[in-house]
Amino acid sequence: xxxxxxxxxxIDFKENSMRPVELRSDTMTRPTPAMRKAMAEAxxxxxxxxxxxxxxxxxxxxxxxxxxxxxxxxPSGTMANLVSQMVHCGRGDEMIxxxxxxxxxxxxxxxxxxxxxxxxxxxxxxxxxxxxxxxEAAIRDxxxxxxxxxxxxxxxxxxxxxxxxxxxxxxxAVGDIARRHRIKLHIDGARLFNAxxxxxxxxxxxxxxxxxxxxxxxxxLAAPVxxxxxxxxxxxHTARRARKVLGGGMRQAGVLAAxxxxxxxxxxxxxxxxxxxxxxxxxxxxxxxxxxxxPERYVTNIVYFDVxxxxxxxxxxxxxxxxxxxxxxxxxxHTLRAVSxxxxxxxxxxxxLNAMAKIMK
Length: 361
Ligand code: TLP
Description:
By secondary structure, the chain is α/β, with parallel strands linked by helices. Helices cover 40% and strands 16% of the residues. The protein has helices spanning 33-41, 53-66, 77-88, 102-105, 110-113, 132-138, 168-180, 192-199, 203-207, 233-245, 254-266, 271-286, 314-323, 346-360; strands at 21-22, 70-74, 94-98, 118-122, 149-155, 184-189, 212-216, 227-231, 291-292, 302-307, 326-327, 329-330, 335-339. The strands form three sheets. It has a seven-stranded mixed beta sheet, sandwiched between helices. The model is unreliable at 11-15 (pLDDT under 50). Bound molecules: ligand TLP.
């Protein structure tokens, strides 16, 4: 059983004294003591009336961090994407996105089911990009037979592409295409700060081309709940209406926003540690016979690898790891996912690698 020393940031938490090495997702992070204190002390009001001072403060901070005029606090990354899509597209309009986009893959087809938006996919390359020529070719001409293309949606970092970050030059090339065709660009930046850390740039540099950009507070930044969508004042005005019709108008949401403010102030600069830990894991896994991955591919906090030992599948391996106190996700018949975050230390990574080596022997 892995039982490494508690991360100092969590030392106050009793439940943390005997903890598994939790690598299933960075969504597993629990609020830090500073967040819990800020939540308890948050000044609140009715946010549907625009009167929650803590939500207003978080939204102003988020807009500033993204270099946009305004921002909107929403309950989840899924709602952030859907709200943005609803603002940019009307009924029957088309959105172009990657074949492996979270919005296409993991959001129940909400864009179609709820917002009546027609999704058109372009194959994602392993680095998370959509080839520029294919992207541009997918934009429809004005023809009575076609839906109208209104939106390109990118994902940065790209979850199913191993946390691949999209660089400023690529984003600027996509921005050019969108402008030339007078369509909008939305970026699902659930892990945008991971991308910024990977390139050593400010998040706003990765947001510059986007008409709307969302980021999650509840993944690597460790807040318990929430995402923020950022864009122009006009975009946010309409996004606020979309959030309300989706049932996302929260009242004294300042108790949640307070944790988000701590997340932005205290949890962004440390993401490089998660990247170092994920890399340490990837390199270690690559050295274990029966596992297959290219460790150099993983530059943020998400690692995927295949189990190629005959007779062993991902579900069996996950079950065996669980018995050793290590939690990973089976994301395919022979593929596993491991995600680092602030509750995972370098010692935890070594513990996970030891458990894996023992099982694979
Ligand atoms: N991703 C979750 C699962 O849904 C797969 C995870 O564990 O990685 N965009 C991206 C890129 C995401 O990875 C996620 C969540 C979302 C949006 C949705 O965020 P939430 O869960 O807050 O709705």
